[in-house]
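Hey,
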Amino acid sequence: MIDRFWDAERRPRRAGVEGLIGSKRVCRTTLASAILLTISLAPASASQRCMVTDPTGTRLNVRRFDGKVIGALHNGEIVRVLRTSADRHGKPWAYVAYETNGEGWVYREFISCF
């Protein structure tokens, strides 16, 4: 089992540290969460290929940065992920390039990478 806590007593003491970290233990969960968020939002490899796999069976909308729909992709179409991000609600998006020389944002959950 991963130790989620570490003992503050093992760290060198500095003035004011105890007041900032509380009693004896400091949770590393926040740091781990920040690292995972950074990794998940890191740019994807330029060679990462993905296929459109929209479970609704409809075409997957391609959007501009402002959300305006500029195109649509069919299930099974191959795209290349250029970068990924999340919107203000935490939903994952991928900026992709597709065969007809287009680029735009698609909902990341509806593409499968290989």
